[in-house]
Amino acid sequence: MADSAKDLLLDADHIRKEFGGLVASNDVDFTIPRGSIVSLIGPNGAGKTTFFNMLTGVYKPTAGSIVFDGTEITGKPPHAITKLGIGRTFQNIRLFPQMTALENVLVGMHARLHAGILGAIVRGPRTRREEREARDKARELLRYSGLKSRHNAYANSLPYGDQRRLEVARALATDPKLILLDEPTAGMNPQETADFIGFVSRLRDERGLTVLLIEHDMKVVMGVSDRVTVLEYGEKIAEGTPHEVQNDERVVEAYLGKGATDSG
Known about the structure:
Elements: E1 8-19, E2 22-33, E3 37-41, H1 48-55, E4 63-68, E5 71-72, H2 78-84, E6 86-88, H3 101-109, H4 117-122, H5 125-144, H6 160-172, E7 178-182, H7 190-207, E8 210-214, H8 218-224, E9 227-232, E10 235-240, H9 242-246, H10 249-256, H11 258-262
Parallel strand pairs: 3-8, 3-9, 6-7, 7-8
Antiparallel strand pairs: 1-2, 1-4, 4-5, 9-10
C-alpha cells in the first residue's frame, strides 16, 4: 500500500506531549494509510492512549502537527474532530448505562443531525422525518454489530462483549472515516475475541472504514493488522508488518526484558 499523500488518511508529524516534566510522546511520526487496519502496541505506560487522546482532541500536542484527510486537526476540540470523521471507543467502556442500546446509538448520531433546538421543540415534519431515519439507521447499526435483538435492552444489562459491540455501534453512528478502538477485546473470552477480530475486518472490507487499534492481545494484533507500530516510553521503537514487528529485537526486549533475549 503506497504512502503517497493522497493515500494517507492521517499523518501525525513529530508529535510531542509533555505533562509537566514528563514526556508522554516524544517526537512520534505516525501515518495511517486509507483503508488499512493499523495497530498501536507497547507495554503499559508506553503512551498509546495519550496518543489516541491527541488524535481525537482530548489532549493538545505540546509540539507537532496532525493532518486528517487533508485537514489540519492539531488542537481542535473533540466534537470538531468527530464531525470531520474520527470515531472512537474507550479502554474503559463509556456507555450510558441507564439508556437502551438504541438510545446509546442515537446519542452517537447527534453530531450528524440537522434539527436545531427550535426544530426539536416545534418538531415539524422535517424533524420527525429525521428522527425516524435516525432510528432506522440506529437499528441497522445494532443489527450490523451483532445486537439485533438488543435494541431495548439497557446498556448495563448487556454482557461485556455486547457492551463492547454497542460502543463500536455508537462510534459508527458518527459516520467515521477512521475508527479508533482502544483495547476493544479487553475482558472478552476467546470466542468473543475471535468474533470481534472478524467484526473489525468486516468494518474495513464491507464499510470501507480505516481502523486504528490499541490492543494487548498479540493474537488479535497479528491476525487483523496490515501494519503495527510499537511505542515504548513514548517513543516509536518499531514499525512494519506484523511479521516484521514480531521478529524485531527491540520489540522482544520491550515486552520480555533484555535478559530474556540475552539468554536465548
